[in-house]
Each structure stands twice: as C-alpha cells, then as structure tokens.
C-alpha cells in the first residue's frame, strides 16, 4: 500500500539517520537508513606521512637488530568493516628511518562517511618479533563536515603514548 509522503530539508551538511515506521492490519515494522547530505560521495586517500621519535616511551631504541636503532616504518589502512584496504602486507616498510611518506596509487577510496576508517602506523620487526604499533588513528569523515562547509584535505593526529604523528592526505570526489 501507499502512505503519506514526508519530506525534510536539512540546513547543515552531515550524515543523518532517517527512521521510517509502518503499521497495517497485518503488523508493523521499521527501518533506519543513513543519508549523506553533502556534495561528495567518496573520500580518496592519496598519501600517508608519518614520523616518530628515535626512542620508545621506555627509552629503548625501536629496533633490536644489530646496526639498526630507528624503526622500519609502514602503514595499513582498514575500512569500517575491518577490511584492509592496503593489501595483505600493507605498504612496504621503509627501513631504519624516523619519518616516511607513501604516495598511494591507486588511491584508497572510502564511501562510508558515517563509519570509521583506521590507519595503523607500524614498525616492522624481523623474525618472531611482533611489529611495534607506533600509532592507531581512527577517522570518521562525517565528523569533519557536520558544522561547516569545509571539507578537509588533510587529517592530522598524534599518538599520545609514542608521540608518533601521522598525516593522511585526501581528496573528496563524486
């Protein structure tokens, strides 16, 4: 059957939850859907930059391997469903450096503005050693355009424990 048509005009850009309920003599039901009120449908990551101090918070160097003291940096990016967007191995590590940048080609695309995407900034370690996590950064694109018309082209964060910093360069597209 048909019901009443309802419209609403949003005054600010953002991600809005829209609720619909229906009731008839056969029962009732409802649905919830997110609506993107913005001129963009996709966020593409085209570069990740990161840097860390030359010592861990406990004062030791990052790498235990002989002749190396600095971390072997690399990144992994995951979407809101936990699926890695950078391939099974992440980006190739950059050995024995304190900062690095990775131009990403092809660009990593994010279409779920209401969900979080996560960038892991890691130190690759050899053998049975577990890779050190320099920082874990979560971004929810909708948080950055709810209050204004500004769509940032750079996400910047610092890990409070390790002091590691990361810049994620993006472009907004349709």
Written overview of the protein:
The protein is mostly beta strands and 174 residues long. Helix content is 0%, strand content 45%. It contains no helices and 9 strands. It has strands at 14-24, 27-37, 42-51, 73-78, 99-110, 117-123, 132-139, 154-158, 165-173. The strands form 3 sheets. The chain has a 4-stranded antiparallel beta sheet with strand order 5-3-9-8, with no helix packed on it. Strands 4-6-7 form a 3-stranded antiparallel beta sheet, with no helix packed on it. It has a two-stranded antiparallel ribbon with strand order 1-2. The protein is elongated and about 75 Å long.
Q: Helix/strand/pairing class, anyone? A: mainly beta
Question: What distance lies between the first and last C-alpha atoms, to the nearest angstrom?
Answer: 35 Å
| Number of helical regions | 0
Mean pLDDT: 85
Principal-axes geometry comes out as elongated
Largest sheet data: 4 strands, antiparallel
Rg (CA only): 21 Å
Helix content: under 10%
- In what order do the strands lie side by side in the largest sheet? 5-3-9-8
Indicate the low-confidence ranges by residue numbers: none
H and E string: EEEEEEEEE
Which percent band covers the strand fraction?
over 45%
Would you count the extended β strands for me?
Answer: 9
């Amino acid at each position: 059957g048909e019901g009443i048509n309802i419209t609403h005009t949003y005054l600010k850009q953002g991600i809005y939850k829209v609720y619909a309920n229906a009731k008839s003599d056969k029962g009732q039901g409802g649905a919830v859907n997110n609506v993107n009120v913005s001129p963009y449908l996709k966020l593409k990551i085209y570069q990740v930059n990161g840097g860390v101090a030359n010592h861990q918070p406990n004062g030791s160097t990052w790498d235990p391997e002989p002749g190396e003291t600095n971390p072997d940096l690399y990144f992994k990016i995951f979407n809101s469903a936990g699926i890695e967007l950078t391939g099974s191995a992440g980006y190739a590590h950059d050995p024995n450096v304190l900062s690095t940048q990775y131009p990403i080609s092809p660009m990593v695309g994010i279409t779920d503005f209401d969900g979080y995407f996560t960038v892991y900034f890691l130190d690759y370690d050899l053998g049975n050693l577990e890779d050190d996590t320099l920082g874990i950064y979560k971004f929810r694109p909708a948080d950055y355009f709810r209050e204004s018309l500004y769509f940032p082209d750079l996400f910047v964060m610092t890990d409070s424990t390790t002091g590691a910093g990361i810049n994620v360069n993006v472009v907004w597209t349709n």
